[in-house]
């Protein structure tokens, strides 16, 4: 009707725009009539996504389609009148002073908790807008409450209750204090612990309960046990949490007066006290006095050391040099530590403290062993020397000391107190959740015993086929006699049907390696060589077998090689790939194997812990785990705007969690670093119990097999086969530039082979490019999956 509209009529229609019902009412009317968005879009002459934006209030119809849409809504409104308005659910938040309009109640009447409603879109999702300072904490927030910027949770500390006024002040002039309630949607606390003494616990679902002082030890113990039970903590968890009332870390800066140091705890609040001295030793002593640290994550594990971050201003105040090239006056990053003759190092030693072999560098450990034999240690993080400039960290520019404390405190709460790079922290998390030993009582006293499900404390060498070429066991190894496991880097020529498709669309698997590690059977003991073994899919190991005869789809990458090519003869494969060959119908006869008869789901606690940290962070960014199931369009829209509307600190935590998962797996086959290494010699990483290339191979192979299995099902469900894969990103030819153009089956429903969602193992939209541009990349010998996100340059994620 609107196609042939006269230009003058169109202009008049624009002037005489008909009033439309609110977006929520538009959606209600369509649903009441049992009309799909696609059908409305077809009749009005727009795309389905456009109707969705009209119903969510993200855009308004324009002439000439506005007139057709208004006429449709008017007719529907006559047939389906609006019901009585229902009460809207409210979100309870601490009420800042700007909302306190009512006078304070009488002292005898207890004040009811005030309710503040976060602004919502018509579909019920929270309204997001450009970041502005939160009215509660002053940090940027994309959420609104009554139009005012306010945090949903995670990085917000409620405004402190109004202090008692002098007795001379009239009572009527006092503002009503804000109600104290738990933070909304606060992500799970990874380690049991209490918040800093000066503020609430950081990013915790549990509200810190007040514990009245007992008049005797007999009364205090039951009270502590009852509080622990109420918070879901066991006795050992409650005891561990009580040891560190100040939280896991502090960021030390120079006070605004310039005359003293100030320390910000993990929730960004200033500590009750600050280091009084002017040396590193004074800061270390203060950290122990206020009881910084983190509780153990395993009953038989160890508590985490305190972390103290020194800002650039504090660095100068403590007499430490800035970064530079002058070895006498500056910290030289190439050397990695200050010279042992530097006065700062001498001050530490003079105070009775010691430094590890890494010395005083970006991530330094200062320790000593008291008379009782229990070592005390404080770790220093010095961003001015490059501690947070790389290694998986992406700290937002211009972040102040309080903001840095909140950021690192959130990572510490959800994952682990940082120990260096995110990879180092991830590997530390593995052994923290799976400690190698525990105390065992014997007839002669206490001794050390193994922990079930953990790897031994002493490292053991892997099998010769599994090690990299520079390993001593690889010297003299025949070419091709190695287990080669790398993520996919594959693409093929386009079919005729794919060439005429207008777009290439990339889908990326969320946290693919992390998802693969859950319940995966991994080695716990040394390898045993077996000749002509009978294959057992439950025994992790390396198998020499010929898989060249396995039938495969020529349109999909082969699952047995990194380049997706068909194997050409016998080669070494992990248990995962041999088992998948049998699933594809092959008959396998291994001629040799290096098998691990001691095995178990070693990384399962690590997987669960990091997975929850990832989900909590996504939820804090406005992407709950069920958003894609409830509304795929809302999920895609939210993900597309994440980097522009998301809280910068939460985005930095999300990036760090991703790099923690990826870096942990890489550390299991860490190669020699630094100068002075000679090919064929051992290197320091080999002495770690977690250095095991087979563990890395099993995780990567599981991720590869999982994706290949989904791609096969995808081709069956939708008729679409990917033509390029890079690691966990697959590229398809599509009629449109969106993810749903790939994931929609012929019957109009979404496929579950590649499932859209935020959870690890599900997929998200990676990017799309015109097919003509993609075809040119293929002609030039470039993998289109490497460029699907940013076009001409490689994606930051690769």
List the helices and strands and how they pair.
Blueprint: H1 7-15, H2 23-32, H3 37-44, H4 48-56, H5 65-79, E1 128-133, E2 140-145, E3 148-149, H6 217-230, H7 235-242, E4 249-254, E5 261-265, H8 280-289, E6 306-310, H9 312-317, H10 343-350, E7 354-355, E8 363-368, E9 376-381, H11 401-414, H12 422-433, E10 437-442, E11 445-450, E12 489-491, H13 496-499, E13 503-509, H14 512-517, E14 522-523, E15 528-531, E16 541-546, E17 570-574, H15 575-583, E18 592-595, E19 599-600, H16 604-620, H17 627-630, H18 632-640, H19 642-645, H20 648-667, H21 693-718, E20 724-726, E21 729-734, H22 740-743, E22 763-770, H23 771-779
Parallel strand pairs: 4-6, 6-9
Antiparallel strand pairs: 1-2, 2-3, 4-5, 7-8, 8-9, 10-11, 12-20, 13-21, 13-22, 14-19, 15-18, 16-17, 16-18, 20-21
Helix pairs in contact: 3-4, 11-20, 12-20, 15-21, 16-20
């Amino acid at each position: 009707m609107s196609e042939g509209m006269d230009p003058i009529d169109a202009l008049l229609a624009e002037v005489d725009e008909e009033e439309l019902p609110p977006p929520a009412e538009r959606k209600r009317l369509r649903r009441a009539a049992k009309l799909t968005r696609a059908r409305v879009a077809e009749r009005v002459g727009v795309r389905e996504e456009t109707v969705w934006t009209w119903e969510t209030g993200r855009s308004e119809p324009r002439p000439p389609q506005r007139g057709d849409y208004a006429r449709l809504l008017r007719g529907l409104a006559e047939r389906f009148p609006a019901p009585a308005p229902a009460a809207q659910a409210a979100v309870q938040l601490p009420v800042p002073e700007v909302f306190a309009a009512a006078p304070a109640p009488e002292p005898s009447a207890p004040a009811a908790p005030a309710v503040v409603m976060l602004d919502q879109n018509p579909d019920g999702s929270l309204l997001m807008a450009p970041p502005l300072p939160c009215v509660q904490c002053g940090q940027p927030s994309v959420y609104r409450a009554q139009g005012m910027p306010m945090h949903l949770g995670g990085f917000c500390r409620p405004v402190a209750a109004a202090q008692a006024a002098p007795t001379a002040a009239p009572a009527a002039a006092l503002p009503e204090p804000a109600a104290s309630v738990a933070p909304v949607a606060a992500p799970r606390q990874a380690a049991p612990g209490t918040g800093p003494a000066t503020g609430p616990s950081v990013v915790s679902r549990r509200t810190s309960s007040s514990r009245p002082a007992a008049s005797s030890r007999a009364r205090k113990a039951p009270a502590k046990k009852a509080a622990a039970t109420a918070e879901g903590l066991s006795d050992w968890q409650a005891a561990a949490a009580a040891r560190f009332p100040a939280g896991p870390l502090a960021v030390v800066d120079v006070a605004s007066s310039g005359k003293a140091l100030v320390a910000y705890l993990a929730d960004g609040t200033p500590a009750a006290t600050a280091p009084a001295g002017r040396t590193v030793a004074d800061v270390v002593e203060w950290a122990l006095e206020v009881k910084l640290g983190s509780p153990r994550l395993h009953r038989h594990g160890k508590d985490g050391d305190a972390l103290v971050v020194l800002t650039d201003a504090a660095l100068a105040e403590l007499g430490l040099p800035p970064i530079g090239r002058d070895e006498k006056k500056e910290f030289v990053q190439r050397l990695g530590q200050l010279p042992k003759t530097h006065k700062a190092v001498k001050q530490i030693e003079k105070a009775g403290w010691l430094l590890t072999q890494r010395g005083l560098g970006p991530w330094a450990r200062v320790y000593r062993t008291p008379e009782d034999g229990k070592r005390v240690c404080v770790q220093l993080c010095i961003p001015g020397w490059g501690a947070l400039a790389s290694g998986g960290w992406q700290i937002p520019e211009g972040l102040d000391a309080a903001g840095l404390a909140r950021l690192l405190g959130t990572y510490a709460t959800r994952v682990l107190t940082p120990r260096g790079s995110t990879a180092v922290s991830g590997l530390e998390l593995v052994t923290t959740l799976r400690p190698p030993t525990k105390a065992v009582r014997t007839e002669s006293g206490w001794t050390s015993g193994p922990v079930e499900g953990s790897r031994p404390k002493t490292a053991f060498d892997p099998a010769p086929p599994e090690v990299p070429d520079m390993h001593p066991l690889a010297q003299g190894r025949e070419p091709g006699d190695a287990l080669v496991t790398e993520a996919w880097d594959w693409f093929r020529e386009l079919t005729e049907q794919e060439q005429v498709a207008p777009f290439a669309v990339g889908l990326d698997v969320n946290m693919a390696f992390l998802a693969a590690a859950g319940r995966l059977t991994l080695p716990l003991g040394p390898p045993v060589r077996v000749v002509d073994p009978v294959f057992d899919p439950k025994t992790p190991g390396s198998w020499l077998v010929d898989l060249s005869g396995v039938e495969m789809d020529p349109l999909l990458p082969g699952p047995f090689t990194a380049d997706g090519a068909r194997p050409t003869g016998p080669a070494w494969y992990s248990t995962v790939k041999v088992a998948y060959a049998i699933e594809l119908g092959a008959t396998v006869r291994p001629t040799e194997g290096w098998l691990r008869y001691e095995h178990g789901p070693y990384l399962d606690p690590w997987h669960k812990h990091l997975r929850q940290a990832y989900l909590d962070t996504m939820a804090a960014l406005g992407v709950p785990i069920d958003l894609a199931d409830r509304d795929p369009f809302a999920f895609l829209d939210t993900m597309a705007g994440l980097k522009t509307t998301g809280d910068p600190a939460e985005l930095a935590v999300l990036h760090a969690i991703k790099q923690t998962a990826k870096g942990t797996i890489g550390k299991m086959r860490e190669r020699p670093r630094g100068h002075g290494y000679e090919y064929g010699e051992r290197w320091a990483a080999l002495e770690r119990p977690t250095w095991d290339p087979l563990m890395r191979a099993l995780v990567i192979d599981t991720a590869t097999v999982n994706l290949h299995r989904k791609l096969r099902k995808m081709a069956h469900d939708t008729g679409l086969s990917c033509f390029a894969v890079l690691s966990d990103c697959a590229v398809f030819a599509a009629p449109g530039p969106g993810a749903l153009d790939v994931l929609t089956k012929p019957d109009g429903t979404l496929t579950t082979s590649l499932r859209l969602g935020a959870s690890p193992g599900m997929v998200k939209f990676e990017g799309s490019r015109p097919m003509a541009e993609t075809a040119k990349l293929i002609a030039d010998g470039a993998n289109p999956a490497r460029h699907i996100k940013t076009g001409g340059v490689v994606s930051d994620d690769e």
